[in-house]
Amino acid sequence: MDALLLYLGPVILLFIVLGFVTYAILAERKVIGWIQGRIGPNQVGPWGLLQTVADILKLLIKEDTIPKNADRSLFKLAPILAFVPSFAVLAVMPFSSRIQFANIGVGLLYYMAISSITTIGILIGGWASNNKYALLGGMRSAAQMISYEIPLVLSVVGIVLTVGSLNLNEIVAAQQKTWFVFPQIIGFVVFIIASVSELNRTPFDLPEAESELVAGYHVEYSGFRFAFFMLAEYVYIFAMSSLTTVLFLGGWNAPFGLTFLPGIVWFIIKFALVVFFLYWVRATMPRIRVDQLMQFAWKVLLPLALANIVITTLLKEVPFFTLYY
Amino acid sequence: MIRTEEMLLNVGPQHPSTHGVLRLLVKVDGERIVEAEPVIGYLHRGTEKLAEDLTYTQIIPYTDRMDYLSAMTNNYAIVHATEKMMGLEIPERAEFLRVIVMELNRIASHLVWMGTYLLDIGAMSPFLYAFRDREQILDLFNELCGARLTYNYMRVGGVKWDAPSGWIGKVDHFVTYLQKQMKEYHQLVTGNEIFMQRTKGIGVYDQETAISFALSGANLRVTGLNWDLRKDSPYSIYEKFTFEVPVGEAGDLYQKYLCRMREIDESLKIVAQAVDDFPAEGKIMGKVPRVLRVPEGEVYVGIESPRGELGCHIVSKGKDKPWRLKFRRPSFYNLQILPTLLKDENISNLVAILGGIDIVLGEVDG
Predict the structure, then answer these.
(1) How confident is the model at residue A205 (pLDDT cuts 50, 70, 90)?
(2) How far apart are CA A308 and CA A188, in angstroms?
(3) What is the pLDDT of residues B6-31, one digit of tens each?
(4) How far apart are alpha carbons B119 and B187 in whole angstroms?
(5) How far does the CA of residue A128 sit from the closest CA of chain B (Å)?
């Protein structure tokens, strides 16, 4: 049984994630469509259900072009470097008390470390394309990731301090009484902002800013390589929303003792709310400017995250609050 | 030793934010712009030269294609100049129709500007909301003259089509509808922190610079100068209506946005008044000779298009065709300040500043 799970589990997860990506794209287009007073895709399949399938098929059969002056080996390597970490981070994610592939002691650290590799893929992609827009996009991406990785990591330190562990299972278990979104509200806000930035989504979609840099780092990519960049982006939405759920929204824990629904259902509900929030923000916000982005990260988010750590450490010693910490 | 280099970036003519086929040669140092040079002419059709071989009525559809977001004002520029030279009397009903369509067109044009500007800045939804509301204006025009963009509606001496029955009521309905919608725009965009950060204090110039670059329209008024040809050299029947001319103070992009939004409000007021006073009866064409022969001489008329002063200069030798026709195309003049404004800005601001000028390439290239 264990051996079966070891080999079959990841394959099943891969299909679940691919299924999610397929329908997350459709859901995003539908939701944003409704917000903007449109219908969204509705031609391919009933209710547009096969739209993404058709899109992926198109990308698969499209000619795979590599610019003449591109750095060929790096150009081919970049999408792989961007995609592989996005999938690898899912290994430590506890979807319910039983569904988890690797219960390692430093799960949170593993996530943070692996996910930053994607930046290298994006940077290489921007560089290897030998295109000025792609280069600018890649550079922006590198600057942005460095600036936002730090508040992102620091914002969860409060949780690590409270739980006393980096293990994601233990973090969820510690939230049986109170979700960390309440005692760690500052950390939560910093985390959400930094994670939207990590995901390169509006209002922080500077690396691909289509109205400025046309498409940014993947401007020269087409066909399947482009699909890999897109895939990485959406798998990260999956991963980041899962992580938000696990860290702040109590993971698979049922709220108000409503345990008649299994943990995985609660996980999916919370997860879907986080994903919806990302769509909602995208439909509402303009894009922030690159220098303002840096200022915001270093001058606002970083001090806030540090303050959160200090507050958590102090409150942990106050008798009244030990209930929550 | 690390060495840095300036990079020559070619923006356009195929670029999502150049609003058509404008090309910009930008020298960048990192993301900072050292120098920017606009290259125009990709949409040049030689309207002015073509007009020399056309009768005055035949020129009208050509003007539709200059500023294609506000074809009604272009129509008016040429017919107004011709009428002025011939000394024609225009029936009141025709003048009312002209004012209504010109102001509706101004609203439509500003809505497009607002939507695309927000799209440049990275917000997607306002674009679709703006186009949804503009669509209603286009539907009204479609009902009036059978075209959605290139109207060819005005004639020397009046207008081509009378308002169909119920049309005026629909316009009235639209005015109330848009006044309600404007609140939604302000709620979504005006107070948005990111939008304010992107636009406040960006692309600033003072009144003197604006005048020396011959800027007009909202680009001039944003510096605080109250100059609107509808008030300062009234044409048509604008004297009959009460409206204000919105001016800015700081001369930055945020003020430009506010100016244009308030211009929509003022235009709505004008349309509402025109609908109220709309003559129930009357002709739509004045007494006009069958062949238009403009007496020898020349005339210049300037009117307030959504983008600024749209001038039409006719030189006639007494034939049925102009000897020389010159349009003062506001977008073309407004664009000239761009290299000055772009210096030492970054690429994100390039898009914001260019969008703020509100150019239509059909008009820039003529």
Answers:
(1) confident
(2) 10
(3) 888 888 787 777 777 888 888 888 77
(4) 17
(5) 17
A288 shares contact with chain B (CB less than 8 Å)? yes
Residues in chain B: 366
**CA distances, B355 to each of A25, B203, B296, B304 (Å):** 30, 11, 42, 20
Asked if the C-beta of A214 comes within 8 angstroms of chain B's C-beta atoms, the answer is yes
- Which residues of chain A from 55 to 84 reach within 8 Å of chain B, CB to CB? none
Low-confidence ranges of chain B (pLDDT < 50): none
Sign, CA torsion A37/A42/A48/A52? negative
Query: For the segment A59-118, what is each residue's pLDDT rounded down to a tens digit?
Result: 888 888 888 887 888 888 888 888 888 888 887 888 776 666 777 878 888 888 888 888
Mutate: best of A28, A214, A279, A285, partner B, most B CBs <10 A = A285
| Residue whose entry in the numeric block shows the structure tokens 């430590």 | A92
Lookup: tokens for B287: 């007494």
Check if A290 contacts B (Cβ < 8 Å). yes
**Positive or negative: CA dihedral B19, B23, B26, B31:** positive
The Cα–Cα gap between B218 and B225 comes to 10
Tens-place pLDDT, residues A237-270: 888 888 888 888 877 777 776 677 777 788 888 8
Confidence of residue A211 (pLDDT cuts 50, 70, 90): low
Q: Which residues contact A206 (CB under 8 A, 6 or more apart)?
A: A137, A140, A141, A144, A200, A216, A287, A288, A290, A293, B348
DSSP A141-172: HHHHHHHHHHHHHHHHHHHHHHHT---HHHHH
- What is the value of pTM for the model shown? 0.86
Greatest distance between any 2 Cα atoms in chain B: 82
Structure tokens, A9: 């589990």
ipTM for the assembly:
0.78
Q: E strands, A131-287, where?
A: none
Q: How far is CA B308 from CA A144, B134, B209, B302, B357, in A?
A: 40, 20, 16, 10, 11
User: Which of B7, B128, B346 has its CB closest to that of A291?
Assistant: B346
Contact call for residues B178 and B111 (beta carbons, < 8 A): no
What is the secondary structure of A46-101 as a DSSP string?
A: GGGTTHHHHHHHHHHHS-----TTS-HHHHHHHHHHHHHHHHHGGGG--SSSS--S
CA dist B335 and B291 (Å) reads: 38
Catalogue the E-assigned strands of chain A. Answer: none
Nearest to B133 by CA among B175, B73, B70: B175
Cα separation, A3 vs A11, in Å, equals: 13
Query: Are A90 and A17 a contacting pair, CB within 8 Å?
Result: yes
B217, B222, B224, B228: CA torsion to nearest 10 = 20
**pLDDT tens digit string along A305-322?**
888 888 888 877 776 665
Greatest alpha-carbon pair distance for chain A in Å reads 67
Alpha helices, H only, chain B: 47-51, 56-64, 71-86, 92-121, 125-145, 167-185, 193-199, 207-212, 218-221, 229-232, 253-276, 330-335, 338-342, 347-357, 361-365
Distance between CA A57 and CA A232 in Å, rounded? 17
Look-up: residue for tokens 């970490």?
A85
